[in-house]
């Protein structure tokens, strides 16, 4: 039950009898008391009301009393109880409208989800623009939750799409949700949403106003649009809680405090994480940003803006104006335009007002993006990442280490995605990029980027690239763009020689180490949906996956460890597997090494690492270069063909032994298989 007095400046109480010693509950909120109480069926209750300051009421005051329990009859096809454990299960637009009415009648904690067997809910039956030819009147969606009834429950879109949302409002708090005070909204995609409000504040496709509410996995498609006045965003007008994995493709228009994700953010200890804006954001006033227009406090991390941003002043790719903003591993690639003569415009942030704002990781931007101020495109030193203000950096780190401009080619190559991922293990990487398709790094992409080391040139004069790889959590598929080549190998060592056996395909089992060879510096690694691959046995592959965390590993008794590295790192010479050196543990004989997650190392039985003719332990297996004393002359790559990497003068048998007087048989010469008949 709810009761109020139509904003008549009253104080209200609820009693179970006229003679009770105390009331059950009361409220003296200004300007209108509002009582919500769970009543028992068949019981009589009494509502008392006085003027706000305690005087008896003279004349009449009309009270609104509603019985709005959750045991009401549900619409056909709808199930659930509205609780966290048993949410309402919604299948149609009518179900959504019923749920909206339920919330707006003061059931602000009810929970709902879109049904598993529903792909999309089309809203055209409950909201649509006018059609004069068909004599259909306009019907604007009334938001879920309002100023009097702040929604605080959990709404799970279940990965489904809500299409054709239509809002043409004249009031504030415009969006699919109007006013959120808490709870969790997640897993919704909006298709062809059109939201327009002439109210002064708080407009967004998902929500107009969001207090301490969590947003997860919200996406608007490119055919969506939102237009408001002040405090307008592609996802929400204003928010306070944690925002993660949200993506806006809608065009955002308005006056000031506009953002591709949020118009305003008061995050304090909260953050915007792994979010991206692709839509153009255009404001006629100030505080316009690709992520957030006005950023009071909080953190933006692993997030990007790709849309063009326009405003009067305080304009930036990420933030228009920030007070206390903490930025970590972010990217801005859009053009930034300030229509006034101002210094508060930058390719990352327009203005930062407090120097306690901090930056870490990499703050990357596109060196080709245009910064235009008052009609003039800026050049040279006039192009700024931060228009006005400054950031603080970790100890020992300066601005040039963090704020970096990258060319379009660097952004496309995978280099920036790799740097933003900070070399973390595959499952921990927040950034990715599908090479050959994505022009920029993408937060949350399944296509993670690994880096290969430059080796010697091949017979065509092109550099080769080599890397070890492993994943402790998933089976993985490795890939490169269609115009490149990729080979994946197992590696074994015997009689002081290394043999590389090319694998059938580019998939790698969980907890398996491999070696890969390609013709470019960056390679994609994408986790498989299932872990069904079988690892190669230790007899077939001496490569061992590194642990999930950086740590020192120790060789098993009787074994030696080798790691992929250079003989001369500064000049990238002598790439190959070298007997490990661990200075921290005073080891230079292959007994221990510092292992990096996502890599692999060789663990070789010591006798197998020795040349039988000399009993000397091979200290390295170097790719190419012609040095026959390193053990590399034993590498045989097994695949559809038998070939050798690197040019070594002479003729060798398939076991890598140099032959002075070859007889009939198959041999290797100048990297190619030859047959002597």
Short description:
This protein has four helices and 66 strands. It is mainly β and about 675 residues long.
Q: Report the sheet-strand fraction.
A: 35-45%
Count of individual beta strands: 66
The low-confidence parts are: 625-649
Helix run count: 4
The coarse silhouette is elongated
DSSP helix fraction: under 10%
- Rg from alpha-carbon coordinates: 33 Å
Major β-sheet profile:
9 strands, mixed
Q: What structural class should be given to the helix and strand makeup?
A: mainly beta
Overall residue-averaged pLDDT value: 89
| Widest sheet: strand ordering | 11-14-18-23-27-30-33-37-38
**What is the terminal separation in angstroms?**
98 Å
What key attributes describe this structure?
single chain; 677 residues; 9-stranded mixed beta sheet; mainly beta; 4% helix
Write the layout of secondary structure elements.
Elements: E1 2-4, E2 10-15, E3 25-27, E4 34-36, E5 46-51, E6 64-66, E7 88-90, H1 93-104, E8 112-114, E9 120-122, E10 154-163, E11 166-169, E12 177-180, E13 184-191, E14 194-197, E15 201-204, E16 207-210, E17 214-220, E18 225-227, E19 230-233, E20 236-239, E21 243-244, E22 247-248, E23 251-254, E24 258-259, E25 262-273, E26 276-277, E27 281-283, E28 288-289, E29 292-305, E30 309-311, E31 315-316, E32 319-332, E33 336-338, E34 345-346, E35 349-352, E36 358-366, E37 371-373, E38 376-377, E39 386-388, H2 399-402, E40 403-406, H3 408-413, H4 415-420, E41 431-432, E42 442-443, E43 447-451, E44 453-457, E45 463-469, E46 476-479, E47 486-494, E48 497-502, E49 507-508, E50 514-518, E51 522-527, E52 543-545, E53 551-554, E54 559-565, E55 576-579, E56 592-595, E57 600-605, E58 610-611, E59 616-617, E60 620-622, E61 637-638, E62 642-643, E63 651-652, E64 658-659, E65 665-669, E66 672-676
Parallel strand pairs: 7-8, 8-10, 9-10, 10-13, 11-14, 12-16, 13-17, 14-18, 15-19, 16-20, 17-21, 17-22, 18-23, 19-24, 20-25, 21-25, 22-26, 23-27, 24-28, 25-29, 26-29, 27-30, 28-31, 29-32, 30-33, 31-34, 32-35, 32-36, 33-37, 35-39, 36-40, 48-61
Antiparallel strand pairs: 1-4, 1-6, 2-3, 2-5, 37-38, 41-42, 43-51, 44-45, 45-50, 46-49, 46-51, 47-48, 47-50, 52-57, 53-56, 54-55, 54-57, 55-60, 58-59, 61-62, 63-64, 63-65, 65-66
């Amino acid at each position: 039950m709810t009761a109020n007095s139509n904003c008549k400046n009253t104080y209200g109480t609820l009693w179970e009898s006229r003679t009770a010693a105390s009331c059950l509950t009361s409220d003296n909120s200004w300007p209108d008391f509002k009582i919500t109480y769970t009543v028992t069926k068949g019981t009589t209750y009494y509502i008392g009301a006085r003027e706000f300051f305690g005087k008896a009421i003279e004349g009449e005051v009309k009270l609104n009393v509603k019985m709005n329990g959750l045991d009401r009859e549900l619409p056909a096809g709808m199930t659930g109880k509205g609780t966290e454990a048993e949410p309402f299960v919604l299948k149609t637009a009518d179900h959504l409208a019923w749920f909206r009415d339920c919330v707006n009648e003061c059931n602000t904690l009810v929970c709902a989800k879109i049904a598993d067997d529903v792909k999309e809910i089309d809203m055209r039956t409950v909201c649509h623009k006018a059609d004069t030819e068909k004599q259909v009147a306009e019907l604007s969606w009334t938001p879920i939750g309002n100023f009097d009834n702040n929604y605080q429950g959990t709404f799970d879109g279940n990965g489904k799409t809500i299409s054709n949302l239509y809002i043409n409002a004249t009031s504030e708090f415009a969006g699919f949700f109007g006013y959120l005070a808490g709870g969790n909204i997640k897993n919704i995609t909006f298709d062809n949403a059109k939201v327009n409000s002439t109210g002064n504040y708080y407009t967004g496709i998902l929500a107009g106003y969001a207090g301490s509410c969590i947003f997860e996995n919200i996406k608007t498609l490119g055919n969506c649009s939102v237009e408001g006045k002040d405090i307008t965003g592609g996802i929400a007008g204003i928010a306070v809680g944690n925002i993660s994995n949200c993506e806006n493709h809608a065009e955002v228009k308005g006056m000031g405090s506009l953002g591709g994700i949020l118009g305003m953010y008061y995050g304090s200890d909260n953050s915007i994480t792994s979010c991206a804006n692709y839509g153009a954001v255009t404001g006629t006033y100030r505080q316009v940003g690709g992520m957030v227009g006005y950023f009071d406090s909080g953190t933006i991390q692993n997030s990007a803006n790709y849309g063009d941003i326009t405003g009067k002043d305080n304009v930036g790719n990420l933030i228009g104006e920030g007070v206390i903003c903490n930025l970590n591993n972010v990217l801005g690639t859009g053009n930034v335009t300030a229509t006034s003569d101002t210094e508060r415009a930058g390719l990352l942030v327009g203005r930062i007002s407090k120097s306690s704002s901090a930056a870490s990781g990499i703050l990357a931007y596109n060196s080709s993006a245009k910064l235009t101020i008052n009609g003039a495109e800026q050049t040279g030193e006039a192009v700024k990442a931060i228009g006005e203000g400054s950031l603080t950096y970790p100890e020992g780190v300066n601005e040039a280490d963090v704020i970096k401009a990258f060319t379009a080619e660097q952004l496309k190559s995978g280099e920036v995605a790799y740097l933003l991922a900070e070399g973390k293990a595959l499952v921990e990487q927040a950034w990715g990029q599908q090479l050959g398709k994505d022009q920029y790094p993408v937060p949350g992409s399944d296509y993670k980027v690994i880096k290969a080391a430059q080796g010697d040139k091949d017979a065509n004069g092109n550099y080769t690239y080599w890397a070890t790889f492993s994943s402790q959590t998933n089976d993985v598929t490795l890939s490169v763009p269609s115009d490149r080549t990729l080979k994946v190998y197992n590696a074994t060592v015997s009689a002081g020689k290394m043999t590389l056996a090319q694998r059938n395909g580019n998939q790698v089992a969980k907890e398996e180490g491999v070696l890969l060879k390609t013709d470019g510096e960056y390679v994609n690694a994408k986790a498989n949906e299932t872990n069904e691959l079988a690892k190669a046995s230790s007899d077939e592959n001496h490569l061992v996956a590194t642990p999930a965390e950086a740590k020192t590993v120790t060789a098993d008794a009787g074994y030696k460890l080798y790691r992929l590295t250079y003989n001369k790192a500064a000049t990238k010479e002598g790439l190959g597997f070298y007997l490990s050196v661990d200075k921290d543990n005073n080891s230079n004989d292959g007994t221990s090494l510092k292992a990096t997650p996502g890599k692999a190392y060789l663990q070789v039985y010591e006798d197998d690492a020795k040349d039988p003719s000399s009993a000397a332990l091979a200290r390295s297996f170097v790719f190419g270069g012609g040095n026959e004393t390193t053990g590399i002359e034993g590498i045989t790559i097994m695949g559809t063909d038998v070939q050798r990497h690197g040019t070594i003068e002479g003729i060798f048998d398939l076991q890598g032994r140099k032959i002075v007087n070859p007889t009939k048989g198959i041999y290797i010469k100048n990297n190619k298989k030859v047959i002597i008949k």
